């Protein structure tokens, strides 16, 4: 009951911050410092938003929240592209890693509704790992195209490689 009440207090205060500062927010890392100004006086003090999206919007403004969500969406799309390339290469391990990272990203996106975690290292590691996998899978595709152009890859069983 106390955890639920704390979240409601923090979410309400965060939404008030967003309403007051919709474009620039209250400043990165300032949620905990200014939350007392936005809480009702009869409620307990809460220092985190308990919602990554509310905290990001309160600190960075709505444009910052949209950028954050855009990064998550583009990471998911990138991992899907890696999976498609893995089928063409073919690389079962690459496919499984990309699929697992997509599942982990979905898990993060859902859990971020209940915890303040957008600054946590693990989600950023996942994002940068997706970038590395994208570059690696592009390099693998380039190698196949070059071998095919030299006639080293048989046409049988190798689909046309289209990105």
Structure keywords:
163 residues; mainly alpha; elongated
**pLDDT < 50 runs, ≥5 residues:** none
Largest sheet: none
**H/E topology pattern:** HHHHH
Helical residues, percent: 55-70%
Q: What structural class do helix, strand and pairing data support?
A: mainly alpha
> Beta-sheet strand percentage?
under 5%
Summarize, please.
The protein has 163 residues and is an all-alpha fold.
Explain the layout of strands and helices.
Layout: H1 2-20, H2 31-38, H3 52-88, H4 92-111, H5 121-149
What does this structure look like?
With 163 residues, the chain is mainly alpha-helical. The chain is built from five helices and no strands. The chain has helices at 2-20, 31-38, 52-88, 92-111, 121-149. Helix 1 crosses helix 3, helix 3 runs antiparallel to helix 4 (92-111) and helix 3 (52-88) runs parallel beside helix 5 (121-149). The longest helix is centred in the middle third of the chain and has 37 residues, at 52-88. The model has no long low-confidence stretch (mean pLDDT 89).
């Amino acid at each position: 009951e106390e955890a639920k009440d704390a979240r409601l207090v923090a979410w309400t205060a965060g939404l008030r911050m967003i309403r007051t500062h919709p474009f620039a927010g209250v400043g990165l890392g300032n949620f905990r410092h200014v939350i007392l100004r936005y809480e009702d006086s009869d409620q307990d003090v809460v220092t985190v938003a308990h919602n990554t999206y509310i905290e990001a919007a309160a600190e960075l403004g709505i444009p910052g929240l949209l950028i954050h969500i855009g990064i998550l969406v583009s990471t998911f799309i990138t991992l899907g592209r890696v999976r498609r390339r893995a089928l063409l290469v073919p690389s079962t391990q690459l496919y499984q890693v990309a699929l697992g990272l997509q599942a982990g990203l979905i898990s993060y996106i859902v859990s971020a509704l209940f915890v303040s975690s957008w600054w946590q290292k693990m989600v950023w590691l996942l994002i940068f790992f997706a970038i590395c996998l994208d570059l690696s899978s592009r390099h693998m595709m380039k190698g196949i195209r070059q071998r095919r152009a030299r006639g080293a890859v048989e046409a049988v069983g190798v689909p046309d490689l289209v990105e």
